[in-house]
Design brief:
There is one protein chain. Helices cover 38% and strands 23% of the residues. It has 389 residues and is an alpha+beta fold. A hairpin with a 7-residue loop joins strand 9 and strand 10. The longest helix is centred in the C-terminal third of the chain and has 25 residues. The relative contact order is 0.16.
Length: 389
């Protein structure tokens, strides 16, 4: 906190009037399914982003990202998206979210402070938005509750190309509590907090440093006709979380999906499988059954790898090592892991027995020798949502 305040005062010759903090975020299962109104399982983690703010006497906006050493500028009358502004567009989008909701902002000096950069893919851009929203609300004493703030953030999401975050991102950054994970139901626009209290486990996020290479255009899957196809395969079932699940019968699936090509069929099948893994993970957590949760996570990675085509050899190698470390009964795993982060490739999360962490770190050294990329590994804990500090 002192460092954040010092950096702001050094940059703008004025002390920050407010500082807000929002957590990083990891999607555990289902992050590619929100377009189909399915469900996403997410975890807020203690990779904090701080946003310090102070009022200006004019209508200008100034942005400073400490760790990147970058400075951007803009004005309230000129909130245009500029490709070169990158992270600053996230802050500008929030200003737009407030102004388009009837709130009147003034000029602001912003300082962004995060030891994890947005490129890592751990929800840092979302955290910048959320912390900015809480800082601006406090700075101008706007009277709006959490639900209204979520609407401001949703408006912010839609303003700038390439800056969109789904409702699961917002819910996780706003409503999370320690020792919980967030299950977002995109069809209902609601969330639930699920208990995640496994003191014998360690959560590790690994940035594999693999260059992201897009192998196919995900927007091609997000077409209304594909939503209608999957809608035909949804069946009501009161005994499962959310009240419905996808038809499990393979012949029924094949018949409905026969109108699309093989690639689209695989990707849509992956979406349906992801929804089932979310349901399995939720049911396991309700019983404090880590083994059942692990199986859902591991199956989800196989799903992403084999059907959604977003993994890569480096990521698969890391997660294969997790399975090798798990020497228990393979039918009841004690460790799990999966690809995560934006884009195609790059990051993993692993949840290991505490005693298995040293062995995993040894595997990271081996990974560097084999692939030539120097991974970065973060040990994290579940975190609470945004707050003023």
């Amino acid at each position: 906190m002192e460092k954040v305040r010092e950096e702001h005062e050094s940059e703008y010759k004025a002390k920050p009037e407010v500082v807000a903090m929002a957590p990083g975020r990891v999607h555990l299962i289902g992050e590619h399914c929100s377009f189909f109104k399915d469900k996403t399982l997410s975890m807020a983690v203690n990779l904090p982003v701080y946003v310090a703010a102070s009022k200006r006497q004019d209508t200008n906006l100034r942005f400073y990202f400490v760790q990147m050493g970058e400075r951007k500028r803009g004005g309230l009358s000129n909130l245009k998206f500029k490709k070169e502004d990158k992270w600053a567009n996230a802050v500008k989008s929030v200003i737009y979210g407030f102004s388009s909701s009837g709130f009147e902002c003034g000029g602001v000096d912003f300082t962004i402070y995060s030891n994890i950069l947005p490129s890592a893919g751990f929800g840092i851009t979302t955290a910048i938005k959320i912390a900015t929203a809480w800082a601006v609300k406090s700075l101008f004493k706007f009277r709006c509750g959490e639900d209204a703030m979520v609407k401001v953030l949703e408006k912010a999401n839609k303003q700038f190309p390439g800056m969109y975050n789904f409702r699961a991102d917002i819910f996780t950054g706003v409503y999370s509590k320690e020792n919980t994970i967030v299950l977002t139901d995109h069809a209902k626009g609601t969330y639930d907090l699920l208990p995640f209290k496994f003191s014998d486990k360690t959560i590790l996020l690994t940035d594999a440093r693999v260059p992201r290479v897009t192998t196919w255009n995900e927007e091609s899957l997000r077409q209304p006709e594909n939503v209608l196809l999957l809608g035909e395969l949804k069946e009501r079932k009161s005994t499962v979380y959310g009240g419905w699940q996808y038809e499990a019968n393979g012949s029924d699936r094949s018949e409905v999906l026969s109108v699309v090509n093989e690639e689209v069929r695989r990707h849509l099948t992956c979406v349906m499988n992801e929804h089932q893994y979310v349901l399995e993970a939720q049911a396991a957590l309700a019983k404090d059954d880590f083994s059942g949760f692990s199986k859902a996570v591991n199956h989800s990675h196989e799903n992403m790898r084999d059907l959604y085509d977003i993994s890569c050899p480096e990521i698969d190698w890391l997660l294969k090592r997790v399975q090798e470390i798990d020497t228990a009964d393979p039918r009841n795993p004690v460790n799990c892991g999966r690809i995560t982060g934006k884009g195609f490739g790059r990051c993993t999360y692993t949840i290991l027995r505490n005693e298995d962490v040293p062995r995993y770190r040894e595997k990271l050294s081996e990974y560097e020798r084999i692939f030539g990329f120097t991974p970065e590994c973060f040990e994290v804990k579940t975190a609470r949502g945004v707050r003023l500090v």
